[in-house]
Design brief:
Structural class: alpha/beta
Order of helices and strands: EHEHHHHEHEHEHEEEEHEHEHEHHEHEH
Number of helices: 15
Strand content: 15-25%
Distance between the termini: 42 Å
Length: 417
């Protein structure tokens, strides 16, 4: 029992695709001979309660803070049975995000009251922010960064209370995974993939750049074999890459696409892609031939002043050329926008606003529009999102509605409470 661990994904968080980071942890620890149980409590409680999908996914502090108390009040037998089911495990691990932190901490406290001897481990993105703010409590185990090596060491008694950025060098040494450890017998219409960890770029607003110390990549051959494994085990042909970007290396992307085509995998896939100078039409066409059905592009702005302030590393002209190449290749894509970035002038905002208004034939869809949120605390004496940023988002939304430009309504202001 000394090296047994239950890893829990708590509400509220995304319902689809499944939590890939936890699947990696379960497979890695199992490969080390450790009794490991992965529990997607998020989907279990969503199915148990009468909450709508819209409420579950929308940012709402009161809702998130009350999920645990409501569960205890209305479904206490379920909660007690769940805690009782954890008896065989010496370690209990939680992956905490901003949205599920309140539930995770409350459940951890309940587990400690029932089983004082159990050791609690907290990992996930939110541990990074707690660490940056010197707010990690002086109890339990904490993992900042990826968790495979850290959990292996903690459960073997080889780790300090806080582990920071103990990263796997060769990602191809990781065992292949399938989705059976989450819900045995369940079927999925989409399977998650991760071809890399980290990002070589340093956009000033982005918190993802802090989650890893360096970029590491699986080989195209490994990812191809992983896809074949998921097709066989889970009968799935639709995949979504969870990477920060899929085009960190054009040669990698070309090799992957050619492997998918030559091995006749007959899959569909989608990913996030970065705007880059010199992106070729031949590669864009190859991406489409390999089964790509959608790309999420972080455009953010078309003002050169704002792009420079964001440290995006490209210009308006580069962005237009890149999007034009995707369009010419027949690729479906959608863009995201950040409005009201610090020092964004009215002229800068208007440049992006006017571009959207006149680019219906270039941009198939706007996926996401948000005011700038200061996640990293770069502006401690100012409040972001501010009123001006919110107003500019509303003005942009009114325009795209009037112009009948396609957009995803649930991704407007979806990063702000």
């Amino acid at each position: 029992m000394e090296e047994s661990i239950a890893i829990i994904n708590c509400p509220a968080s995304w319902l689809n695709p499944p939590p890939l980071s936890l699947i990696f942890l379960e497979r890695y620890l199992a490969s080390k001979g450790k009794k490991t149980k992965l529990i997607d409590l998020n989907i279990e409680i969503f199915n148990l309660t009468s909450n709508s999908k819209k409420d579950w996914l929308k940012l709402n502090k009161d809702f998130e803070n009350n999920i645990f108390s409501n569960l205890k009040k209305n479904h206490n037998p379920f909660l007690k049975n769940f805690i009782n089911s954890l008896k065989p495990y010496a370690f209990i691990g939680f992956s905490i995000l901003k949205r599920n932190s309140a539930f995770s901490f409350a459940l951890a406290d309940e587990i400690k009251r029932t089983y004082p001897e159990k050791k609690i481990i907290f990992g996930g993105p939110q541990t990074l922010f707690l660490d940056l703010q010197n707010q990690i409590p002086k109890t339990d185990y904490w993992v900042v960064g990826e968790g495979e090596i850290a959990l292996d060491n903690i459960t073997a008694g080889r780790a300090e209370r806080i582990t920071r950025f103990d990263e796997i060098e060769d990602l191809d040494t990781l065992p292949f995974y399938d989705l059976s450890s989450l819900n045995p017998g369940a079927t999925y219409n989409c399977a998650p993939l991760l071809s890399s960890r980290g990002c070589p770029y340093r956009c000033n607003f982005c918190s993802e750049r802090l989650l890893y110390k360096k970029l590491r990549c699986h080989s195209p051959q490994y990812i191809t074999e992983q896809i074949i494994h998921l097709k066989k085990q889970n009968k799935v042909t639709n995949f979504v890459f969870c990477d920060s970007l899929i085009n960190y290396d054009d040669l990698w992307l070309e090799t992957f696409c050619r492997l998918v085509i030559s091995r006749k995998l007959n899959i569909t896939w989608q990913a996030q892609m970065r705007i880059k100078k010199g992106f070729s039409l031949s590669l864009a066409k190859l991406i489409r031939m390999s089964g790509c059905v959608n790309l999420f592009i972080g455009l953010e702005s078309v003002s050169d002043n704002t792009l420079k302030a964001m440290n995006k590393g490209y210009s308006k002209n580069t962005a237009i050329s890149f999007l034009s190449t995707l369009k010419q290749a027949g690729l479906q894509f959608e863009i995201s926008l950040i409005i009201g970035y610090p020092k964004e002038s009215e002229t800068d905002f208007k440049e992006t606003y006017d571009f959207l208004k006149t680019s219906r034939n270039l941009i198939p869809k706007i996926a996401q529009i948000n005011p700038f949120v200061d996640y990293l605390g770069h502006y401690p004496n100012r409040s972001y999102p501010n009123t001006q940023g919110k107003q500019r988002v509303e003005k942009t939304l009114e325009m795209i509605q009037a112009e009948r430009i396609k957009y995803t309504s649930s991704f407007i202001n979806n990063l702000t409470y």
